[in-house]
Amino acid sequence: MLRGLDDPTYTPIHITRMWPKREAELVNGGSLYWVMKGVIQARQTILRLDEIIGQDGIRRCGIVLDRPLILTTPAPRRAFQGWRYLAPQDAPPDRTETRENEEPLPAELAAALSDIGIL
């Protein structure tokens, strides 16, 4: 049975082939940024790195993530494989809360406004 976000014991983990060289930076307040359709749109705080041995006997890195998905200001970024480290000044800021009765902007519009520096 698959566990999901509705299961209070679920801990998100992202498994990758390579162990990060800058491990200390990741587990000391780092985040994994999610690129969707060429735009960074969200992040999750990295809690720790766990060693995972696959069925093939190969060592992999399990990036253990905090459950909340934090929406960021959309930032264009080509999709990539492997590690990319974002300097704090290059990381997109977290999205601010919307006003009580305000509808959120469609993602495509928010990304376009971000491109020209309005959002």
Describe what this molecule looks like in 3D:
- There is one protein chain.
- With 119 residues, this protein is mainly β.
- It is built from two helices and five strands.
- The protein has helices spanning 23-27, 107-115, and strands at residues 13-16, 31-36, 39-53, 59-65, 70-76.
- Strands 1, 2, 3, 4 and 5 form a five-stranded antiparallel beta sheet that branches.
- The radius of gyration is 16 Å and the shape is globular.
- The mean pLDDT is 84.
Helical residues, percent: 10-25%
Task: Tell me the strand percentage band.
Answer: 25-35%
Biggest sheet overview = 5 strands, antiparallel
**How many beta-strand runs?**
5
Order of helices and strands: EHEEEEH
Rg calc: 16 Å
Mean pLDDT: 84
Look at the helices and sheets and give the structural class.
Answer: mainly beta
How far is it from the N-terminal to the C-terminal residue, by CA? Answer: 41 Å
Tally of contiguous helical segments: 2
Features:
single chain; mainly beta; five-stranded antiparallel sheet
Would you spell out the secondary-structure blueprint of this structure?
Layout: E1 13-16, H1 23-27, E2 31-36, E3 39-53, E4 59-65, E5 70-76, H2 107-115
